[in-house]
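the three lines:
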Amino acid sequence: MKWHVLRPLWVAIGLVGTIFVARAFMVPDDFGVHGQNFTYGYHRLSNIQEWKDFPVKYQGRETCGSADCHETNLALLDSSTHETVECENCHGPSIDHPDPNEFLPLDKTRELCLRCHAFLEYPNSDRGELMSIVDRTHKRRYECVECHNPHDPKEYYE
Amino acid sequence: MSCSRRDFLKEAVGGTLVSTLPLSAFVLLTTDEAKAAIADSKVRWAFLVDTTKCVGCGLCVKACKIENEIPYDAAVTRTWVERYVITKDGETHIDSPNGGRDGFIDDKIRDEEIEPEDIAKAFFVPKLCNQCDNPACVQVCPVGATYQTNDGIVLIDRDWCIGCGYCIMACPYGVRFFHPEHKVADKCNFCYHRISKGMQPACVECCSFGARRLANLRDPDDPVTKIITTERVAVLKDEYGTKPHVFYLGLDANVR
Amino acid sequence: MPEDLIVHGIEWTVKELFVYPNEYIYWSIQIVMYPYMTGLVAGAFVLSSLYHVFGQKELKEIAQFSLVFSLALLPVAAMPLLLHLQQPARAMEPLLTPHFTSAIAAFGIVFTAYALIVLSEIWFVYREYFVAQVHALKSETGFVNAMTRLVYRVLTIGAYDVSEAAIRVDKKAATILAAIGIPVACFLHGYAGFIFGSVKANALWMSPLMPVIFIMSAVVSGIALCMLTYIVIMEWQAFWRRRRGGAVEASKIKGAETDVVNKATRYLLGFLVAAISLEMLDLIFRGYTAMKSWDILRSVMYGKDFINIFVLQYTLGNLVPFVLLLLPGRTVKRTALALLLVLFGVFMMRWNVVIGGQAFSLSFSGYMHYEIPVIPHSVETFKEGVFGALTVIATPFVLFWIINKFVPSLRRDVEGT
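prediction for all of em together
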């Protein structure tokens, strides 16, 4: 038997061995099949907590009304046609307001209001039912909030 | 050649078998296996979209971008709203400018004027990741960078994704994309960081019309689950066998 | 445009009608290059094995050359992937945590296995030569000679026995490896076809025929490239020998041997017919069954991509070389032209599959046009542009030139198997 024939095999085994050694260093220990099966559950386990720890930006209406803040506007909103509109839709995400985030990026532009209130004549769609305007014919030089109170849209300022 | 025919055949067959060894590592999934593994989970997230209520304001798309730190002006989005205008001649006009991020203010579709009297029906369809039961995107990831949690959400490991794009090609719904800053795959995850704390996804929170709702299919008392199980709902592209978990009320046949 | 707004794909994708917001041509020129290069690798190896395993004696010279060229092509097969990955530093992960349900995960295993087989086979074929060089350089002085000798010493891996028995064992081992290598080479390229064929989301790619079509056209391209390079090199060397004049042996100025070329051409034609038949079958079936995607596919194939598919690929790349190779009085020059067209045709096939599959939206209601970046203005437009592709094409020839200095594959008098 001419043993030199096996030399390439030793090289091959050496290479595969190196890959396994590298694997021990480079692959995180919690990498494996978790929960389901190999097809859908092969991953690094600690990633799940990383996603759970992702910072929250929008806090929701309940937070705006907690600690007795913003009572007036909230009360106004709750009895108006805008009662289902979220505060943060116009005021932006509150994140950790009020500390240190004291002022929120309030959006007062026309474009924001037009999202719902630009008239689109669509039959059988709720969009067609909303109170709306044709943008180019309604007070183009003004922002909507100069005349309408967003917390109580039926209230006009003259 | 000193090799006999028998020797050759033996070697060739042996060699072929050896080279097919990687194939045997293809783990075949049986639905029973998968069901058993997640049977004990008390949560299976699902979503209900009511297209009869969506008015196309696009505040959901904006909120999603801000909440999930997708660069606001980048032309990718985790969720989007499509506008369908079906005219009386049977043509379907569809658009989704910036994914609906700025709402739908213009009645022109790609600079095409459509006269209101020509419109047979028009509606808006929000779309997002379906968190499928058989996610094709997870199946094709070569390195295990994307996976499904026990509560049904498909997540992406940003530190492990190599950016090959196979998952993006494999998704029939087009919900995946490359994050322009992180340079890895990204997609909607039902705001996993929020729902794990008992909050609603940002898009659900910001919808003023109730067009988007989250559900836990394992909770029989969940009002949204009741709707999904008792009312007529549909899913997108079920012919691909992905078993999507975003259910639609009022889904029109023209929706692509 | 600020860095964070450059979405991958936006710079070379033009959308038409309704396309989902996140859809772009993500798999562009480098993903066209990748199956093209692995196809050349597989084809070169199969050509070499036609001699080593099936004893086709007329192919001995070109088989020597193909084997080494296959090795030169191998690292170049991995290049397009490195250029395409958004995270190239993580390129080792398919070897570290392969998710075997993904066809791409097979890449790590198959690539490594194939590399080992080709390297081992070359070792067995050239070991006697390496040992001879170690002995020949022993008496030479100088740093370059010492370094060269060191390289040869490493290449022998310490196996210096060149007795008749040892050489017989070498030849047998090479034959066995050539035999094992054929299914592995087929797998190396077949899985690339599987990568596309198994994507159910893509109406053009999804087909069980895809892996077979890819293998057939891969072998075609591999044989064509080896034949073409062999012809070019042989004619070039003969040209220079003739120019230098002086007393030269007749056998040294022959150029490409016509019987070698003829034999290889017969195999090429066989695989070409198989490749074309399968593609025709796929096309006919799609039209006949007219699934939901047929409307948009038809408008892409018979409309927008008509020239790419029917003129460039099928006519210029398949039909014309077919005719050129079959017409009587075939010369080496005419064969070379046909081979060039075949290589172009196989490239267009890869292009039409990869780019064609992304030419229509998942919505089936819109299109995407691919505008390949020509002059790069950023790293990404270089990597995924014309110059990135040219870099990939040029590299195997550079590598071959280097490898050939130590593993002479074109010498007519090298004792091989």
